[in-house]
Amino acid sequence: FAHTFSDKGELQMKNVVAVIPGTDEKLKDSPVVVSAHYDHLGLGWPDVRKGNEGKIHHGADDNASGVSVLLELAKTLAKTVKPKRTIIFVAFTGEEAGLIGSRYFVDHLKEYYQGDVIADINLDTDGRLFDNKLMVINSSSAKEWKFVFMGTDYTTGVKTDLITQDLDASDQVAFIEKGIPAVQLFSGPNEDYHRPSDTYDKIDGKGLVKVATVAKEVLVYLADRDTPFEYTGKATPATQSMEKPKTIRKASTGSIPDFSYKGEGVKISSVIEGSPGEKAGLLKDDIITALNGEKVSNLMEYSNALKKYQPGDVVEMDVLRNGQEEVISITLGER
């Protein structure tokens, strides 16, 4: 399919799709999808951090890790299962530019399958699990996800952490926008995100096996489930541009949030060395509660608040540190 970019003109783009046909006449037209995006940033497009322009962005974790799991699942399941529902394996293009491939896929899926998709399992940034819990983002999109992953915790021994707050994170959002239950399996944030330092030598191979094991359990279960999930997310049309703007300078504190934190505010899991946050005195385990007096209760509110400022702006950040309220003045940097 063709997509027109403001700075590159019209480009031909491709999603890569494979299927295992369903065997049940009533269910085969209501597939389950497992996905991963295969695009990254190349030499720094469409997103690049200051100072990394023109450098190779390897994208080992984001998202060669997810594509590796996707390929292994397709290879293994093609030989071993005869599912009731059709299983669709899809590697999306254009995720980094604004979910372009996944939104195109969802918009055109009815041309091939008349039934409703039961769910999407999206694999994105899965290469650094180590001894951590596997995060399940957007688990609030169906009430059944909680019980599904309680089951995989038991059958696989791989512990999961369900992230219930709404996050505009990856290609699963394209499904949620259409009222389709969807989750992202995520090994967690790290300081190499969208940097040339996201290289293969930092990948946890054994962790990828864990991710694949959980994904396989969920996928096989969904492929043979007779009844649909009860969607509990917020189905809203995509109002943002299909293409991320390239001219806006993005402000940054240089801190990495704790996605698994379930309290009020945004908890900091780490602060990048030399970043504005470190220079201002922001510390690991600080909980950000307000930005220039604007309350931030979760990651989405924090992200939206930060978008109102430009690099070089000085903002007052309210934080909780060891239960004590503090105010930190920080000069925002540029991503």
The biggest beta sheet is recorded as: 7 strands, mixed
Indicate how many domains the architecture comprises.
2
Task: Write down the secondary-structure element order.
Answer: EEEEHEHEEHEHEHEEEHEEHEEE
Strand order of the largest sheet: 3-5-4-6-9-7-8
Alpha carbon gyration radius: 20 Å
Give the fraction of residues assigned to helices: 10-25%
If classified by CATH, what would the architecture of the largest domain be? 3-Layer(aba) Sandwich
Write the CATH homologous superfamily of the largest domain.
Zn peptidases
* CATH fold-type name of the largest domain: Aminopeptidase
Query: Structural class, from secondary structure content?
Result: alpha+beta
Shape descriptor reads: globular
Could you tell me how far the N terminus lies from the C terminus, measured between alpha carbons in angstroms? Answer: 31 Å
